[in-house]
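Morning, I've got a small favour to ask if you have a moment. It would help a lot if you went through both lines with me. I owe you a coffee for this, so here goes:
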Amino acid sequence: MKMLKGLLSAALAVSMSFASQYVIKFSHVVSPDTPKGKAADYFAKRVEELSHGKIKVYVYPNAQLGGDKAVLRKMKFNAVQMAAPSFAKFTGLVPQLGLFDLPFLFKDENHLHKVLDGKVGQKLKEMVTKKGYVALAYWDNGFKELSDSKRPLIKPEDCKGLKFRVMSSKVLIAQFKALGAIPVVLPFSEVYSALQQGVVDGQENTISNIYTKKFYEVQRYMTMTNHGYLGYLVVMSKKFWQKLPANLKKVVLEAMKEATAKERIWAKELNNEQLQKIKEYAKRTGKLEIDYLTPQQRALWVKKLRSIYPQFYSTIGKNLIEEAIKEGE
């Protein structure tokens, strides 16, 4: 009898333990071995460790729970608790996030992270949070480069008349129009075939995207411009966040801080590794020319493309743009 009572007590304790746990479904659309995927897994591990098992995180990679837009809808109802979409998925809600599409806004990686981790980054997170998501952190993909099939892109005018694939972004459309190029909005999944078939002449992307999608195989020239940035915003369901006790909110923020530091290192390492592989391909085949801009050449691009900024003072905010530029001075 005593043994039976003991077993029932143990079972009840286990049941109560599970009932008191907070469960997080963390959705993302990339594979687990990418910087975002690795950081999501690291975050899951650290949250469970720091909360002593009070929070359990299940990571769903490769869009297992749906694409980012579908997941963001589910998060409103707390059906999914976390996601890490690209900034582009939020610009309909918070147009000010178009700031990160502005060409040549950032001098370098240090300038970028000062903005992300400083007052500007915090203001943008607060804007997203007002729209029903709790913005936790910014994760890197990397800086974008240009590639095309027609000629080396050394001067801004070299882009004139060329067709470039762009994401659906008013800033990016204005960017290529300023260069005298023709922007063509296409889904990411169609870029390789569009380049291969000559539907478009060129594209802009991070090294990791250029490498993993093999865009370099269907392009003749690539210019290392570092002209724009691609990143992710890690968000949590507001309904879930409000249910968390204060001590567990601190745990989530600490684990996210650690995961963010790791993710940025992994993103940089991956871009460097994959750039090396593209260079090896170029050397081995002779089918790709990789060009680097001198400081003088870069200055011409900066002057040309920063001229579009006033077009977005009303949507992004003149003060926000100027504050971001000032961070790098």
In short: Confidence is low (pLDDT under 50) at residues 1-20. Strands lie at 22-27, 55-60, 82-83, 133-148, 163-166, 182-185, 202-206, 221-224, 229-237, 289-292. The chain has twelve helices and ten strands. The chain has one domain: 14-326.
